[in-house]
Design brief:
It holds the Pfam family DUF7719. It comes from Marasmius oreades. Keywords: Membrane, Transmembrane, Transmembrane helix. By secondary structure, the chain is mainly alpha-helical. The protein has one domain. It is built from nine helices and no strands.
Length: about 190
Amino acid sequence: MDRRRQEKPLESTPAQEMPEDEQWRLVNQSGILSKIPEAPKQKTLLEEEAPLANEILDATLYIIPFSTLLLVMDVIIHNQYGEYPPLKEFAGRMASGVPILGLFVFYTKRHQDNRRTKFLMFLLSVCVGPRLLYILARSSFTVNIRQAPPLITLWIYTIVQLDLGPAFLNLVICGLFVWWKDLRRYLI
């Protein structure tokens, strides 16, 4: 007979005799679980598209109110000067302004955590704020009608996107500009 068949297998203690918490302690102490490579996780199509979808949704949540602000400022500035243009003129201005505003909002929201973007938004607000105040105080009504609504919308958007410190500094700079150019008598 074959010798292998005659030998009795070593009796091992069944795993049932050792408590489960003791088994886990031994497994954790041996470090065997950390040696097993993890299978690479495959991203589903939904997980890959989620960041872009979230960016589009986030931008849309800003585009809608700021487009409405652009339209309302356009209507208000026309009414201020006693003009009542047809709805077609407002639709034309919105058709040209909203896509530009949408692209601007989308890309500034996408890169809003970037320091360069924040700095450029601050510079833009420093340029737009005084320009808006100057044209409202010293320009003719036709210039106000054409330039004020987009400038108001852009200035408010940049202030909303800035942190509190730069936004306050922008308002101080605009106040100093009004004082320097003596625009207070025209704006009040």
